[in-house]
């Protein structure tokens, strides 16, 4: 449970596309997860936040068998002692057939008062 005041920051679903618009890790859930979490990190940083302010992650996976691999990568980015709430959903497809996962995040930018 998260309590407190602040501004809710929503980061739309991120996929394994690099800064040049190229797919990272075709067929490799670990490589795609690393790129997804790096993209999330950059989006959070643009809002002046880090993974420490993330309160909810939602995972969309084309194969739930990839979830353990995604969690291993996720654990390199979040505080595993205090992880954000999360939901994982298996989907039939994502925007492009080569995408194995998409992750969205909600963060709480605390009031500085």
Please give a quick description of this structure.
With 113 residues, the chain is α+β, with helices and mostly antiparallel strands. The chain is built from 2 helices and 4 strands, in the order βαβαββ.
Strand content: 25-35%
Q: Structural class, from secondary structure content?
A: alpha+beta
Based on CA atoms alone, the radius of gyration comes out at 14 Å
The tally of beta strands, per DSSP, is 4
Spatial shape: globular
Can you walk through the features of this model?
By secondary structure, this protein is of the alpha+beta class. It has a single domain (6-110), classed as 60s Ribosomal Protein L30, Chain: A, CATH 3.30.1330.40. The chain is built from 2 helices and 4 strands; from the N terminus they run βαβαββ. The chain has helices at residues 29-46, 67-74; strands spanning 6-14, 54-61, 85-90, 101-110. Strands 1-4-2-3 form a 4-stranded mixed beta sheet. Strand 2 (54-61), helix 2 (67-74) and strand 3 (85-90) form a beta-alpha-beta unit. Helix 1 packs across helix 2 (67-74). It is globular, with a radius of gyration of 14 Å. The two termini are 22 Å apart.
């Amino acid at each position: 449970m998260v309590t407190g005041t602040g501004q809710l920051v929503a980061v739309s679903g991120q996929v394994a596309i690099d800064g040049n618009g190229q797919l990272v890790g075709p067929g490799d859930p670990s490589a795609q997860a690393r790129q997804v979490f790096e993209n999330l990190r950059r989006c959070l940083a643009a809002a002046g936040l880090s993974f420490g302010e993330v309160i909810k992650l939602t995972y969309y996976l084309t194969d739930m068998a990839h979830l353990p691999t995604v969690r291993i990568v996720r654990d390199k980015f979040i505080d595993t002692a205090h992880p954000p709430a999360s939901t994982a959903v298996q989907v039939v497809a994502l925007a492009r057939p080569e995408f194995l996962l998409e992750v969205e995040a909600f963060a709480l930018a605390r009031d500085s008062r």
